[in-house]
Specification:
The complex is a heterodimer of chains A (137) and B (422).
Chain A lengths: L2 E2 H8 L14 E8 L4 E9 L6 E9 L2 H14 L4 H4 L4 H8 L6 H24 L2 H6 L1
Antiparallel strand pairs in A: 2-3, 3-4
Helix pairs in contact in A: 1-2, 2-5, 4-5
Chain B lengths: L4 E2 L16 E2 L10 H7 L16 H21 L6 E4 L2 H15 L6 E5 L4 H12 L3 E5 L9 H7 L4 E5 L13 H10 L3 E5 L18 E5 L10 E5 L28 H39 L3 E3 L10 E6 L4 H7 L3 E2 L1 E2 L12 H5 L4 H5 L1 E5 L6 H20 L2 H7 L13
Parallel strand pairs in B: 2-12, 4-5, 4-6, 6-7, 7-8
Antiparallel strand pairs in B: 3-9, 8-9, 10-11, 11-14, 13-14
Helix pairs in contact in B: 1-7, 2-7, 3-4, 7-11
The chains are: A alpha+beta (137), B alpha/beta (422).
Chain lengths: 137, 422
């Protein structure tokens, strides 16, 4: 298997590895994939309640090098974006940036799914919670 | 768009003294040639270039002599006679010739073939093709240790069964089937027994008479010989086995396999067998020692590692381990100065994890996490230590990256999680 320099770089030096407090109302968690498929990504975002800007992002991934690189890149890209901007990130952009071969496109799809799942989780918390209470934290 | 794609560069790890990187530990895929084999072959490219079928001049005689020496050495290693050895292009051809050749020859007698789900694709796909031609094939399951259940084999046999084909040693998990017992069951019922012994010959003692083998596939490049040459043992007595040719032509190899003989290759295969006859017993002890050292070092450095297949009935140089919560291909990327194989789907063209591991009842998750180590003649203790250290270090790093490891450590039962699969 041939890997692009960027995949190798993200694999060797993954960005934003770790976990955020999944119980925090500011944090959205996306967990996508399945162990039996060989890929599981956990991507978390921490959103500023005033600006809806993603201030922090963390990931952990079980998967091949391209899956690790796709999720590492996804955390880099969502940081500093508003939630709505982050939803515009397309898997095809990840494919392009990392020069993923056709057999690894599903890794980029999973990374896009992870971003969406994290945002979805965060939005659900906002619907439930009292917005003023969230802001006060 | 960057199209700058390249293979993984060598890692920056500094190898301890005496180790040359990358370390080759994939000896089930192929083996490096033994220098003694190459030396034996060299004259047969230029000086003794003749066609072994040329009966009327010295060039042909010299080539024929090389071929016949090779035949004797192979026969000696497996307890056969020279007339029972047919040369082929390798084990895939030998498997094809054995199975298709027996099926064709004995079709009046029956149309049923028995094999096992963990066989090599050269056997499985040959059987699948025969199914299209009206043959009936039973694919026996294996037990958790990788061995077939002999009672199940007995039950599968019927009066239409003409052939049982079960491998001697598995190429992924190194598990050794009970060849002698399988052969006995076949002989009691007049069924021909073929074994794909590609991984076994030259590594463990194989004797066609003691083990009741009728037809056996042999490969040179798995035992420190050259690629592109193999052999098929075909029993001549008790019972006499006949096979139909699948390649027609000049009637070489007593009509069973036409085509000009690969003289240098056959000379090399013969030398590889001669070396094995001399050194196999000692080498097997050495390899098992290295293999156990690798296993112990890995298992003392990591939790949740699982050995796939029986440790008791196993090739001495084989270790197949699953590292829970770490995906195989990412592990291979991390140990890119070590040449090994993974059962992960990501390393195959089919996107399916190893069918052999799945047949053992290993979950897909653990099949994705498996690594096959194949220790061979030229591996050293220092290499084993280096490999063990690198594996422990890389698995530890990837587990820090693994959401599954984190969840497991938090006490989440991963089996109870509803995964949002694609």
């Amino acid at each position: 298997m041939a890997y692009s320099d960027k995949v190798l770089d993200h694999y060797s030096n993954p960005r934003n590895v770790g976990s955020l407090d999944k119980n925090s109302p500011q944090v959205g968690t996306g967990l996508v994939g399945a162990p039996e498929c060989g890929d599981v990504m956990k991507l978390q975002i921490k959103v500023n309640p005033q600006t809806n800007v993603i201030e922090d992002a963390k990931f952990k991934t079980f998967g091949c090098g391209s899956a690790i690189a796709s999720s590492s890149l996804a955390t880099e890209w969502v940081k500093g974006k508003t939630v709505d901007e982050a939803l515009q990130i397309k898997n095809t952009e990840i494919v392009k940036e990392l020069s993923l071969p056709p057999v690894k496109i599903h890794c980029s799809v999973l990374a896009e799914d992870a971003i969406r799942a994290a945002i979805h989780d965060w939005k659900k918390k906002q619907d439930v919670a009292n917005p003023t209470a969230v802001a006060a934290q | 768009m960057s199209t700058d794609v390249k293979t993984i560069p060598q890692a920056e790890h500094v190898a301890p003294d005496g180790i040359k990187l990358p370390v080759y530990m994939d000896n089930h895929a192929t083996t490096p040639m033994d220098p003694r084999v190459l030396e034996e072959m060299l004259p047969y490219f230029m000086e003794k270039f003749g066609n072994a079928a040329s009966r009327n001049h010295s060039f042909g005689w010299a080539a024929e002599e090389g071929v016949e020496t090779g035949r004797e050495r192979i026969a000696k290693l497996v307890g056969a006679t020279t007339k029972e050895i047919i040369f082929t292009s390798g084990a895939t051809e030998s498997d094809n010739l054995a199975i298709k050749g027996v099926a064709e020859m004995y079709k009046e007698k029956g149309n049923h073939i028995i094999t096992a789900v963990t066989e090599h694709k050269a056997v499985l796909d040959t059987c699948k093709r025969l199914e299209k031609y009206g043959y009936r094939v039973t694919y026996l399951p294996v037990q958790k240790d990788g061995l077939i259940d002999l009672d199940e084999l007995k039950r599968a046999m019927d009066n239409k069964t003409i052939l049982v084909t079960i491998m001697a040693a598995n190429n992924e998990i190194g598990v050794l089937q009970s060849v002698a017992e399988i052969g006995k069951l076949c002989h009691e019922r007049g069924i021909i027994f073929h074994t794909d012994a590609t991984q076994a010959v030259g590594k463990i003692p194989v004797d066609v008479n003691k083990q009741n083998i009728d037809v056996m596939s042999i490969s040179a490049h798995k035992m420190y010989g050259p690629k592109g040459v193999g052999a098929l043992y075909v029993r001549r007595k008790n019972p006499r086995v006949q096979i139909s040719a699948i390649i027609d032509g000049g009637g070489h190899e007593r009509g069973m396999r036409s085509g000009t003989l690969n003289v240098p290759g056959i000379v090399g295969l013969g030398k590889a067998c001669a070396i094995a006859s001399e050194e196999m017993a000692k080498e097997a002890c050495h390899l098992a020692g290295l293999r156990n050292r690798l296993r112990d070092k890995i298992m003392s450095g990591l939790d949740e590692v699982y050995i796939n297949g029986s440790m008791e009935h196993r090739l001495p140089g084989n270790l197949n381990i699953s590292f829970a919560y770490v995906e195989g291909e990412s592990l291979l990327m991390g140990i890119n100065d070590i040449a090994v194989s993974s059962g992960s789907a990501c390393t195959s063209a089919t996107l399916e994890p190893s069918y052999v591991l799945k047949a053992l009842g290993t979950g897909d998750d653990l099949a994705h996490s498996s690594i096959r180590f194949g220790i061979g003649r030229f591996n050293t203790e220092a290499e084993v230590d280096y490999v063990a250290d690198r594996v422990v270090e890389t698995v530890t790093r990837l587990r820090e990256l693994s959401p599954l490891y984190e969840m497991a450590k938090e006490g989440v039962d991963l089996k109870s999680v509803k995964w949002a699969a694609e």
